[in-house]
Amino acid sequence: MSLIHRLDAQAPGFDATLARLLDREAAQDEAIETAVRTILQQVRSRGDAAVLEYTQRFDHVKAATVAELEIPLADCRAALQALPPAQRAALQAAADRIRSYHERQVAHTWTYTEADGTMLGQQVTPLDRVGLYVPGGKAAYPSSVLMNAIPAKVAGVPELIMVTPTPGGERNALVLAAAAVGGADRLFALGGAQAVAALAYGTATVPAVDKITGPGNAYVAEAKRRVFGTVGIDMIAGPSEILIVADGSTRPEWLAMDLFSQAEHDELAQAILLCPDAAYLDAVHAAIARLLPEQPRLDILRQSLAGRGALIQVRDLAHACELVNRIAPEHLELSVRDPQALLPQIRHAGAIFLGAYSSEALGDYCAGPNHVLPTSRTARFSSPLGVYDFQKRSSLIQVSSAGAQTLGQIADTLARGEGLPAHAASARLRLHTPS
Hints:
435 residues, alpha/beta, Rossmann fold, six-stranded parallel sheet, five-stranded parallel sheet, 17 helices
């Protein structure tokens, strides 16, 4: 098995080969669908009792009440203080940068008044309550806590309910510390589809939320998909992706490691490099071969690179940009001498990293922009998670007496054309009415 696919974008049949490489559609495991459907139904009908049963079954955590599974915020603050100073400082520095970036996204209420006195506008308000799902146990994702919690708090969300599984009762100190830094208001040691159900429907102990964000396994993703409509969700994220456009000016070892940084997530992750220079692609391939055996997550890397990774020779950088827009990657690195010159040609990408020093890993943790990004070509129509996901907009319409005369005639005509006489009458009744 080769280390990674080697392709020529100008070769016959390339489009079909690329389509196969990008295709990750697989039949959804019916067992997962059935299990999640049952869990949601049970939690919706039986509340806390079902949550306790599933928590004991899947996480091996026994509790007499769900209230016992609530983690005091004091424990989160204590976990933060107990971190090694360098780790605590890094967590706080990342949080400060994430907050500073997202503060620039805040939308504000606005209005304007027309000549006849009619006022129109938009009122912006935060969501009342948001649920944040965070994987737990031995896996630690403090960066995901910060990337979800901080934009919600910047948006003005008054109550953030965080859930994280604690298999065998094992609490992750980094996750608890991040909850303190990110501003979680309540935290429950709950995970899986049952936690999503509790957040979506509410129980006697877990309050129902308006939106659920955060990553999770296939069961969590399926649960989020099923509760959408009852609550909002951020997105259904697929495997991680990185696409690099290179002109040969970056050290090959840097880009080999950048490809590894996403390929190591899981076996279905995708890492692709586009470059017009065949010799440079050879150099990157050699760097991959040299560095790969040293990687701790070697088995995952081998499978993801061999399965969905590729080094692709393109005609030129303009051709590379065409492929970028076709692939619509989650992460895009423009590792070229003049990345700003290529930027206007890029239409579809979740996050764009400009220049050789802008490694994707910095965006994952501390650059500032959100690392919750559209995958699986959804960057064609969706955006990174941000403050705007935790705010909603209400239209404002205050029609003056004079304005009603103009608008009433327009509405009357259009409503009668649509065959809605009550609409027409409602607008017509205000015509020529003294103020």
